[in-house]
Amino acid sequence: MARRPGRRRGIWAIALLVLGVTLIAGPLAYMFSRFVPVKTFGENMLPTIPVESVLVMEKDRGEVRHGDVVTYDPAEWGYDGPFVGRVVALGGDHIAYATGDRTLTLNGKPLHEPYVRDGDAGAGGVSFAVSVPLGRVFVLGDNRGNSEDSRFHPEHHQGTLPLAAVTGVDSEMHEESPLMVVLGLLMSAGVCLLPLSLGLGIASLVVRRRRPVEVQGPVWGATRVDVP
Q1: Model confidence pTM above 0.70
Q2: Residue 30: phi, psi to the nearest 5?
Q3: What are the angstrom distances between the C-alpha of 88 and each of 66, 140, 161, 190?
């Protein structure tokens, strides 16, 4: 039996289509399952994060560390979130500030905070001394003079929030980060494969219509006629 014309092109068209869709959908599914974009509207994280910046927050990272920029749910403070802030103390830490001091102290030692706006760690003039309970965090903004953070809610567990309130951790990803470059290349390859698969599919259909299938061997039911 003769091979159908255009069959090979059709197979390649389907294979490239599946591969192209996979290369596009795979990175997108990975990004949406692991990360979430968050747009900032306030000035509390200046100068680190400009107003209306879009952060790529990692979901369910499993660990929150000192200095992490996080999104969190301020429901315990009576607000709707998410808010963006920086974790300056974890469960078991003692964080403190006294008016007039140049820095905060963490477990009795000066806390180095190069990210604070104008280098003024005590802007806002709020003194505090908090022993953070286990399983909770103490969150501040980098713009201490204009930040609604843990300092202003001492009535709620001394301003601390449960780790469960942390909804994302800044991945610090940007367009030039290695992961973004790799995912971008994979998606670009997938986009390039789609028109190629479409072209092969069209070519396969054209060939099938133009070239009838050749039948080899006897045709059953045909009558032989001898021409004199």
Answers
A1: yes
A2: -65, -45
A3: 6, 7, 12, 43
